[in-house]
Design brief:
The protein has 460 residues and is an alpha+beta fold. It has helices at residues 98-120, 140-143, 219-306, and strands at residues 12-16, 24-26, 36-40, 43-44, 51-55, 62-66, 75-80, 147-150, 156-159, 164-168, 174-175, 179-182, 189-192, 196-197, 213-217, 315-317, 323-327, 332-334, 397-400, 405-408, 415-416, 421-426, 429-434, 437-442, 448-450. Among the domains are: 12-120, no CATH class; 164-217, Seminal Fluid Protein  PDC-109 (Domain B); 397-450, no CATH class.
Length: 460
């Protein structure tokens, strides 16, 4: 054996297998290669078969090399493991050599270090615990199948087991305190609080022995909560889809409303054209009446000419192609008068009706309003009462005082009446104004709202 000091180091070192076969060094001194044990993970390896040892002759430290390389996930542990024995003996009067004494003392120091290293890995009370503490474990028969617990003084005592799994509950089974079972009807897990022989039927919650069990896992409630959460999530997703659908429908309704407004504008143009045609018809009726008056005058003239006929005349022509005759023997006078033109009946102004398009059906949700029919009725043409000329009256409106019609002046964006009334559009709202004061307004849906009050009215 070599002569070197024994250092104050821990006689254990742990590595990962990242070095493969090694070498894996140890820094504590040994006397021979059997003074260590080598573990790969939890498996004790065999010297020479699984590893070799190299020891420094001057330091006593060394290394081991594996026969089969380790993996990165392996753990390599080298720990001091000198056999606890004495191989020398000093006799009275015998030889007493220094190297023999040194070897023996080295061996004893190594053994003490091994015991210290092992003790460091043991459960032990702190140095500051009371001197009355007793860390001795209870006897094996009292701690078998139990947990390690500590009493009020901190001394170790047998503790109740966390629980003994007994599988699915069944009738006729002898259950002990802290047995754990599963209720197969709802997957709930129960812990026995009283030793008993089971009877009755599932579920345990309605069993006559329910007071002997403690609910540990409420799987039924957890399942119901999960179902409720999933239902809530589905409802939220449905609500989100409905909101998106409503938004799309609203956009469609807005587009349809714009289209309806455009159509209404076109129909209003048609109504204006019909009103113009009605005015032309009335003018034609006036011309027909004038012609009838002329024909009546001709008839009167012819009658006057007849009265001048004499008895000596047998045949007389009275204007035009009509022939009149006089029979002197009988005294009968036949007048060949032309038929007077029948006075033309004044044409009745045709009612011009413009029907607004039916508003589009609203999307699911609120139904869009039905577009109201827009009707423009042309005035009835009076016989011989011609409408005012349209020449130089573009942009004006037709007015009447009950006996005559005339063209009124229209200002841009509003309708003004000489009696003090005017109607002014602002955006999609019409404001009705009398004598400078707004008295009402109408929105695009036809809803009329009174703004002020009217104390007197002018003539319209």
């Amino acid at each position: 054996m070599a002569d070197y000091p024994i250092s104050n180091v821990a006689r254990r070192v742990v590595y990962t297998g990242s070095a493969g076969a090694g070498p894996y060094a140890f820094e504590f001194e040994v006397l021979i290669n059997t003074d260590i044990n080598v573990y790969q993970d939890d498996v004790l390896l065999t010297l020479t078969t699984d590893y070799t040892v190299a020891i420094s002759s001057t330091l006593g430290t060394g290394s081991i090399t594996l026969v089969v390389a380790a993996a990165d996930t392996n753990r390599i542990t080298i720990v001091g493991s000198r056999a606890i024995e004495r191989t020398t003996d000093f006799t009275t009067g015998g030889d007493f050599f220094a190297n023999t004494l040194n070897d023996e003392m080295d061996s004893q120091t190594i053994l003490v270090q091994q015991v210290a290293e092992s003790a460091e890995r043991s459960i032990k009370a702190p140095l500051t615990d009371p001197t009355t503490i007793n860390m001795t474990l209870p006897i094996n028969t009292s701690r078998a199948g139990k947990t390690l617990a500590f009493d009020a003084n901190g001394d170790p005592v047998p503790g109740d087991p966390i629980g003994n799994w007994r599988g699915n509950w069944a009738a006729g089974i002898s259950f002990q305190n802290r047995d754990i079972v599963k209720d197969t009807t709802n997957s709930n897990v129960y812990l026995a609080t009283t030793a008993h022989v089971s009877s009755g039927a599932l579920p345990i919650s309605t069993n006559t022995d329910v007071a002997k069990w403690s609910l540990v896992v409420d799987a039924a409630a957890a399942g119901a909560a999960q179902a409720a959460a999933e239902a809530a999530q589905a409802a939220a997703e449905t609500a989100e889809t409905n909101a998106e659908t409503a938004e799309t429908n609203a956009e469609t309704a807005e587009t349809n409303a714009a289209s309806s407004a455009s159509t209404a504008t076109t129909q209003a143009g048609i109504a204006t054209t019909k009103a113009s045609e009605a005015s032309a018809s009335a003018s034609g009726a006036s011309t027909s009446a004038s012609t009838a008056t002329t024909q009546a005058g001709i008839a009167t003239t012819k009658a006057s000419e007849i009265t001048t006929l004499t008895t000596s005349t047998s045949t007389v022509s009275v204007g035009g192609s009509a022939t009149s005759s006089y029979d002197s023997g009988t005294g009968v006078l036949s007048l060949g008068l032309p038929t007077g033109a029948t006075g033309a009946t004044g044409a009745t102004g045709a009612d011009s009706t413009v029907v607004g398009p039916t508003g589009p059906t609203g999307p699911t949700g609120p139904t869009g309003p039905t577009g109201a029919d827009s009707t423009v009725v042309g005035p009835a043409g009076a016989d011989g009462d011609a409408l005012p000329s349209q020449t130089s009256n573009a942009g004006k409106f037709l007015t009447t005082n009950g006996t005559a019609t005339s063209w009124g002046v229209s200002s841009a964006g509003s309708i003004t009446n000489a009696g003090g009334w005017n109607v002014t559009p602002s955006g999609t709202t019409l404001y009705f104004n009398y004598a400078g004061t707004n008295v009402g307004k109408m929105d695009s849906s036809g809803n009329f709202t009174v703004i002020g009050s009217v104390t007197s009215f002018g003539t319209v």
